[in-house]
């Protein structure tokens, strides 16, 4: 779809031209989705990786699913936490972190606004990160609201060895009393992530909005642009007439809004673009 005032021609794939814009930029917004972690072996939400047992993520990542069956939802998140024990940042995360380090030394600004909850940008050394949808490694009390970091593996005894993705695995049906509990009031704890139907933290959306309004270059890496409000951010930047470059294996509903589209693995193209 061509938004008003947008260049109507197809996005460019001229890396040399884009690299020149990277050199001139002073405030860079890097938006990322599951695709930036794909080459680290972290399953994306689409395609085969998008299933756990017989469900898709968006059927389990909801407050309704959690209140109906907290044990099943905790198995899902416990599994995703455990998976991260053996996953590491890939060349795309590293290129982004190295670029931020260089730009900071030159007094310039780079911020990563990620939809991912896997903390791989952090592990790669990125400092200026906004986690739009929270993180796998924080839990929040459903009673008193206490948020705390939790990297325990397993997060609790009852989940030890549970959460295997194969559909033949029976649901663990863990009693709520044995699920992760709040360290302060012993209330039932939940993953500190944003589920479908839940609003994003207002401080998070406000700081993201600041970068959307101030950036002079935007990269959109490994996202299918289907989940809102994150899917609106890059088109909003493009509407300001600021250059947006999309890095993805395929075109997305947002591709035509952007000045550049680099089709291929982020692990290949980001190091080229940001070197
Ligand atoms: C809200 C955390 C309101 C949890 C996530 C109908 C129309 C429009 C909107 C809606 C609608 N019905 C409902 C909505 C709203 C809903 C929404 O957008 N739904 C979608 C499905 C239509 N949004 C919400 O509910 C949001 N909240 O609107 O609240 C409100 C407001 C105020 C007050 C109260 C309520 C909350 C959404 C957040 C949900 N949480 N994650 C968890 O992870 O478990 S979303 C989750 O899915 C991710 O965080 C991410 O955002 C999304 C998946 O998208 P991607 O990251 O893009 O991943 P995906 O697999 O889809 O794509 C990967 C891409 O990478 C692909 O394009 C692929 O080609 C590419 N790729 C793969 N490999 C590579 C690669 N690219 C480069 N290199 C590679 N190697
Ligand atoms: Zn509590």
Automatic annotation (TrEMBL):
Residues given in the record as NAD(+) binding sites: 33-52, 115-118, 222-224, 248-250, 266
Protein keywords: Metal-binding, Mitochondrion, NAD, Transferase, Zinc
Main localization category: mitochondrion
Reaction(s) catalysed by this chain's protein: N(6)-succinyl-L-lysyl-[protein] + NAD(+) + H2O = 2''-O-succinyl-ADP-D-ribose + nicotinamide + L-lysyl-[protein]; N(6)-malonyl-L-lysyl-[protein] + NAD(+) + H2O = 2''-O-malonyl-ADP-D-ribose + nicotinamide + L-lysyl-[protein]; N(6)-glutaryl-L-lysyl-[protein] + NAD(+) + H2O = 2''-O-glutaryl-ADP-D-ribose + nicotinamide + L-lysyl-[protein]
Presence of the UniProt keyword Metal-binding in the record: yes
Active site: 133 (proton acceptor)
Residues at which substrate binds: 77, 80
Cellular component aspect of the GO annotation: mitochondrion; nucleus
Function description: NAD-dependent lysine demalonylase, desuccinylase and deglutarylase that specifically removes malonyl, succinyl and glutaryl groups on target proteins. Has weak NAD-dependent protein deacetylase activity; however this activity may not be physiologically relevant in vivo.
Stated name of the protein: NAD-dependent protein deacylase
Record organism: Phallusia mammillata
